[in-house]
Protein 1
Amino acid sequence: MFMVRIGILGATGYTALELIKLLLRHPEAEISVLTTRQEERPHVSEVHPQLNGRLDLRMENFGPRQVAERSDLVFCCLPHGAAAEATPELLAGGARVIDFSADYRLNDADTFRQWYHAEHLDPQRLGNVVYGLPEWFRKQIQEADLVANPGCYPTSAILPLAPLLKGGLIEPQDIIIDSKSGVTGAGRTPKLGFHYPECNESISAYGVGSHRHTPEISQILGRITGRDPQVIFTPHLVPMDRGILSVIYARPRGQCDQGAAMEVLRETYASEPFVRVVDHLPATKHTSLTNYCDITARTVQDRLLLISAEDNLIKGASGAAVQNFNVMYGFPETTGLV
Amino acid sequence: MFMVRIGILGATGYTALELIKLLLRHPEAEISVLTTRQEERPHVSEVHPQLNGRLDLRMENFGPRQVAERSDLVFCCLPHGAAAEATPELLAGGARVIDFSADYRLNDADTFRQWYHAEHLDPQRLGNVVYGLPEWFRKQIQEADLVANPGCYPTSAILPLAPLLKGGLIEPQDIIIDSKSGVTGAGRTPKLGFHYPECNESISAYGVGSHRHTPEISQILGRITGRDPQVIFTPHLVPMDRGILSVIYARPRGQCDQGAAMEVLRETYASEPFVRVVDHLPATKHTSLTNYCDITARTVQDRLLLISAEDNLIKGASGAAVQNFNVMYGFPETTGLV
Amino acid sequence: MFMVRIGILGATGYTALELIKLLLRHPEAEISVLTTRQEERPHVSEVHPQLNGRLDLRMENFGPRQVAERSDLVFCCLPHGAAAEATPELLAGGARVIDFSADYRLNDADTFRQWYHAEHLDPQRLGNVVYGLPEWFRKQIQEADLVANPGCYPTSAILPLAPLLKGGLIEPQDIIIDSKSGVTGAGRTPKLGFHYPECNESISAYGVGSHRHTPEISQILGRITGRDPQVIFTPHLVPMDRGILSVIYARPRGQCDQGAAMEVLRETYASEPFVRVVDHLPATKHTSLTNYCDITARTVQDRLLLISAEDNLIKGASGAAVQNFNVMYGFPETTGLV
Amino acid sequence: MFMVRIGILGATGYTALELIKLLLRHPEAEISVLTTRQEERPHVSEVHPQLNGRLDLRMENFGPRQVAERSDLVFCCLPHGAAAEATPELLAGGARVIDFSADYRLNDADTFRQWYHAEHLDPQRLGNVVYGLPEWFRKQIQEADLVANPGCYPTSAILPLAPLLKGGLIEPQDIIIDSKSGVTGAGRTPKLGFHYPECNESISAYGVGSHRHTPEISQILGRITGRDPQVIFTPHLVPMDRGILSVIYARPRGQCDQGAAMEVLRETYASEPFVRVVDHLPATKHTSLTNYCDITARTVQDRLLLISAEDNLIKGASGAAVQNFNVMYGFPETTGLV
């Protein structure tokens, strides 16, 4: 039986570590190449001691072409910019690609430039890349050679919002998303703001009005619903390793109360394996280390609140990527994820 | 020189511990009596090992009358209900009272019944009790025999909102308050939800649409501004000991942008010793263990965001109480607090 | 194909939750019955919201006989005392049993009485029950109907100590074990000592000289090595959910330095799937959520230090139990665990 | 009335922040100059937002001579090496100095070279510098122009050990110190090992057999007791901001049991304001944010255990420094510290 040969570009970070752990449990995946920009070819267990005895592989300082030769599917865990540089070569080399960066999530290069303050390196692909949210783009993912894996915050916002927005049950122009994330969301590069004694025992908002997931949320909601929503998005840094909680304040249209909202959510996600519409208030711990996104709705005065919880590294990143991988290859969608 | 004799009713919790620590540094205060409902008269250092060698006192199982006899000022740290039962006796016994519970914060017994699901035991005082937020009620506090010490969340919401609401710069009917608190806010009684492994590494919203600080925020804002604001208030439990961060989504009126909002905030609080209007985004750690509330404003699209940080046990409870004590006795307002 | 029907007695705690999560991934296990002493038959997802959508079962208030009827293998997660009450009935009912409590770990009822301050309810079995540490008792586990699953601390101490003690490389009478555990080790019952703000941001030793794992460590080391070691054991409570780190101070005999110790450890555990002898200093995070125990050795002056890390709920409890289950039924030992 | 003009060299770290906070409460101290090696003269509140509104001073890029001109007393918070470079100039400039680094703590340049792998830059002073532990060197501190402020771990080990070692109650050659510290002990420079998601939810030993506080502990114990103890010292990194817990395994001599040990500890520290000999097991939280060191003793089998808790940044650093300052200037020793 042939297994899918997997390459991981940029394997030193947290999303790559979670991805490797998931793939080690996946019966159809064989990790064939890992890369790092370091010269000295570290063993994967030197970079991630968790993997000691579980994966016997050195990280290579390979370019995309070399990775494509050794892989059927490449998970590209490079930062934005670097991803758009590597992806064309990966695809030209015959690999299918799931990209973790923001490079292929937006509709157009102008929006990219405005929010990322850089020229896009592969602008002609924008507008045609499939967004890797299987709950809404499953068919396109099946056929795709390049999938843009969603941002962690956008998944937590789009899953609850899309059904209501699509059904015309909430106002597109009055959406406030207040999200809270664990510190792994900030990556693995040491910086003062993520130094333990700086962020432990503290909570703060950051990127107020300027976080780059803002246009991703509104553009993808636009693709799904045909409407052009306007969102205010405020992320927070919470002293914990992982998890995202989003509380969304929407304005109901017509008779949309909590019951109607719950019904639409339940119907929409009835056969989805990884969306749980729950009656209780979600806590990130309920979804920790899983690929689930828990969602509920509440009417408070004249607002409809949508609340979601997920693991930022799993449903918000690497679990979603494995789910996409399963869809792309026709494996049962929960393979390696439950 | 005579010191003010201090009684603390209900001295086993976190707010009482913080209060004791502050009063031990206060040159005008002498802690004369601490109570607990336990029979065995524990030494204060058995209940609070932090106080070993700092305060040599047993806790007494005294009623309010006995406490009033031994105190000039009583800090009442009893839960709501119990506070309204004790307070009339304390006052009748000649003590001045700063009450930490919610019993004397609301305008009327009906609102109390609606949100606390109980009959108020001292309803005739409601409507006449001074709210202990010196930034807005300093004069009344000076004269008061009974001060209702503010709730932790309300302080974090009222301080940023009041100047803008009073100035007519934001809409009173469209205010969303998304607040995040450390676990000490839940008190010291062990419960599953506050068991370490349940709330560590997790964030969740709670009391959505039903938290009892909601009417306190709107009624006090009403007293200050003469308007009748409607607020949506969503509290969260954050895995940390202390701190409250509130992000408030307001709708500006007229030309009120970030600059105008900052100017009003700066002017309002220019001579306040414990409100810091800052340009950067506040983090709870910046205010930890202090009596400061840090506030900033941001325009995001068509909204004005107000963000505040405070220590829930200090500016949100015991520090505010000491500040009220200073005002009531004519001591410099920062005594024991800086 | 027939799956093993699994019963779990006492399914509301943390070890049961971890066990269920592991068994849901185990291809040979079918969870058939869960019990709780509560009357109202809660759905498992009400007790453990993590399991929402993953296991559709109500918890039953069944006695051991009813559980035995519905199970081939019972994991008994009851507290000590209750376990020795239920186990004879479970066995009489034809079930095989893996007991998580301390009831069947010790050699004799006298030692039990001395450390647990209670009469043993099933004393005649003591001395004949297999200790479920597959690394040392694999053959006996294969045949056993009753397996005493090891304590979390003992596993972290016995695995590094046994090879050296057996080889006569360290003094049996001079062993100090300084262990540090996350708070899940204290169980799920709310108590003041495990209330979040009490144990967060604090570390303390507890049970100094009196912790009940002390005789378990020395008796099992005695069984393995034929020697009669004396150990001093000091556990600590660390502000984290999970993980145990043990630092063991031993006195080398003869020429046993770090190199010799590492060689013996490596040889002993060369073919063990879940013991990793590592050169670097272990951190609990490296083993978190896995069934691995990481071990290293260091010579410091005239002492040999052995350092081990494990996840207290996995290798220290539920993972070990699944490993025992695999051994008992002849499944590959890593099934469901990697 | 004249206040002591205080200079702080190297004011960007955690010990400097704590020192500033303590000095702001000190009635005899006036902070006159803060330095950083940065060029741009940041306001102290840019580096430490906690100090917003509490200290209005820019940090200067001054050399020691300039600092000495502006200060009566300099707290030198530079790293080792840099401290020995600056101190001779500070002293020559007429300032008294309390040095936070390890440069002046050891007896001789050889030991320094062996443990710090560098040549000492001011070797002739070694052997004559007063060690700033007032409990044992109060008289010398009174007269000193240069005081070596103790290391955080050494204070936690020396305070419990010194009385027993001096009294000949424990063996000098068989002392094991197992210490656990919060992450502020590692300083404020971002590194992977102190990146939040790396050290959160994890505990590990580090510097096993090689930590530089080892010779400091044994040499200072030697100075105090006239004996030449040998210590094994193992530090750990604990996921919390602050606090050190040390568990010390000593071998009693003659009839020294727990009772005798407690009596000696109590007698020794009876009039010390900041050492609390307690019956219960200390927790770091009991000493958090205070200048106390809590100590207890336990007999376990043939060992005497000494357990201490302190705040690593206060009694382990900046609080001790203020205590030394008080002793040097003849102020009541608790000034600014209670």
Note: The first helix of chain C runs from residue 14 to 24.
Protein 2
Amino acid sequence: MRRICSLFLFAASLANAEAVDWLVTARYVVSMDANRRVIEHGAVAVEGQRIVAVGTEADLAHRYQPKQRLSRPDALIAPGLINTHTHAAMSLFRGVADDRRLQDWLENYIFPAEAKNLSPDFVRWGTRLACLEMLLSGTTTFTDGYYFEDVVAEAAKEAGMRGVLGETVIGFPVADAKTPADALALTEKFLIRFHDDPLITPAVAPHAIYTNTDDTLRAARALANKYNAPLLMHVSETKKENDDVLAKRGVSPVKALDAIGFFNGRTLIAHGVWLDDTDIAILKKHGTGVAHCPSSNMKLSSGAAPVIKMLASGINVGLGPDGPAGSNNDFDMFEEIDLAAKLQKLVTMDPQSLPATVALEMATISGARALGLDKEIGSLEPGKRADFITVSLGTPNAVPLYDVYSQMVYALKGSNVNDVMIDGKAVVVNRRVLTLNAPQIIAKAREYGEQVRRSLAK
Amino acid sequence: MRRICSLFLFAASLANAEAVDWLVTARYVVSMDANRRVIEHGAVAVEGQRIVAVGTEADLAHRYQPKQRLSRPDALIAPGLINTHTHAAMSLFRGVADDRRLQDWLENYIFPAEAKNLSPDFVRWGTRLACLEMLLSGTTTFTDGYYFEDVVAEAAKEAGMRGVLGETVIGFPVADAKTPADALALTEKFLIRFHDDPLITPAVAPHAIYTNTDDTLRAARALANKYNAPLLMHVSETKKENDDVLAKRGVSPVKALDAIGFFNGRTLIAHGVWLDDTDIAILKKHGTGVAHCPSSNMKLSSGAAPVIKMLASGINVGLGPDGPAGSNNDFDMFEEIDLAAKLQKLVTMDPQSLPATVALEMATISGARALGLDKEIGSLEPGKRADFITVSLGTPNAVPLYDVYSQMVYALKGSNVNDVMIDGKAVVVNRRVLTLNAPQIIAKAREYGEQVRRSLAK
């Protein structure tokens, strides 16, 4: 009798079921919405580029008639991970000079390697390699600062990834700009070209306070505000940066930047390792976001950022792996989530600090807020872009499962990511990246590796 | 002409080529021998349980005629990773109570969960799950302290894994022993039963100085020495442990233990977070090994162990993931290697401290020395046990490759492990574990998860 009933209800429901492009179902949906809903036997309905509904499979299966179904009964669905700071094309310099002091690493390896090797083609293949790796570890949005950023944008779109991308503005001649003015001109072209792009948010990206003049930084702020674009910059990454600015100007980098109006608009600073309480108050006042990079800060001996204080003050803190050329050396956001939690537990000596839920927030909704994109991404809610991942719960490291947040943060790996949907498109299915030619990218990466090796041997 | 020549040489060589069980070839062999040889286009020849030769593929292919070949032209061969501290069967408590203070976690979750759930069957399935996860992330030897340790040994042998295993001796009634005396009696049976086992090194494992009397610790030392077994114990894990011992005895745990002769024999202490210079000198004098557990020490806010000082003093330091019930929450040695390097770079503020080579040593040859097993395992050398892994170099995170140690430590993942050989047997081939029934183990782990959840709800 119940069977007949449910069949009747099913038939009835189909009659007025709404057509959608996708119905994706899983054992759990980790929404990261305002109520932090975790829906068991959940589903996400997608129409076009956006989520139309998030609920139980039972409910959505009746309300929607999908063109395509993705059924993952032994996985969870989570918002796509948001990388708030990296240098994607540096994938081709992965581990080229590890375990060295920052200045030695930069001046004797990275800057020469870049001077001798950078080209649009290098950046295109480096970004493709990075996208391949990011997609296979669950990243759907990445925030990048490098050179030939228009090529980075083309490669990101080709990969089907969302990017917040800024052409580096730096006070010495680089591959695609002789002067900061040239770089700002390139940036404006870039802002115009990718204005209103569904995947690319063009940004303005001065490198740092110690590699740019105040005039360049003011011009960068003005340019960002002219196009309501985010301004991205490395700030207070090392003690040396803070000490040098203090010696030169008598204040911290943040106070020096505040004095020239640098934070008056959309801003995301990377690192913020050496922020003091006044700096934090200034960033909070301006709604500036912070990209926390635990792997990079540890590997380069930069220090441990005051993340707990930043979060307590209400600053939106995201996570980033930084570049793979010596800071990390990969793009795996699962490791940054895990390490962000563990690093704060160590420095505060309190195992309750930065719990799993907060660590996952940093990689999703808080990262979206830090980028000013939280109306579009960062959680699974009707109206938002359909950017999400499925993560397998059927592997040895995933069982048993007592708490879905704990499992996601401390036990699951990038390699457990099974599928990736971005902007309503299935980009990865069963760990196959549909948008990129993996064997060709890996072969090209090796060719470039040989070229870089030869260039440094000279 | 050269072709004919080489064919002739090949034919000639086969005539007096030595028969062996296995010839495993790869792009690189990372030997971790005294000269830290890295052999490009290398090979390892295996006869029975042992390595008979390590060299170039060209050389060994001429000298040996193998019954079986494993060809991995796009991978590296490295010694199997050695886990020097864990509690394998706690896999069934993975993440049962995270982000809590140690005492709350132990007294309100772990001890009650153990009291209500531990049984030989629980330990068997928990250890099987742990072995499955350890094998798939490249661990060939694990060092364990738990209950029903004879069952742990049976499960390890069934999985084909090498284990240094000790029945926990602790000052309150536990599942398999009412008193420390009962636990020591069980231990002696265990030492006799697994004496001369090819895979199992039975050990004596008092839990800690704060959970055992001096008499028990003296008896444990005497028992270990009677069978020349390693003595394993948690020492100076937390500041509280050090403060309590200091308050009670006026000295550090290491000094208190030295005073009762605890270190007079094979000893491996876990953690050693709060060791001072005198403690380090005492451990060095006795040749005591230390199991460093960076993930656990960070997650539980125990602190950062003085690893650089220990290494400088010549102490053999290995790595361990600790238990997955709240300390980690997995068994991935690749993450411990990466984190060991990054943690020391952070605490010393020197990016040159604990370079990649040293981090990999800790997970291989130094770990073997810490266990007193370096004549048998820890490097790829003729005469040693054939315990090694192949790690794929063909994945996006593995290219380009500039330095094989850097790649292994900072870029490669447990999920890149492709094959595992232990004691001359192929245990994992192409990520398939040949010795264990993965689907059955995962199903059982979930059943036990439900049982544990119900037991804690009561």
Note: The longest strand of chain B covers residues 64-79.
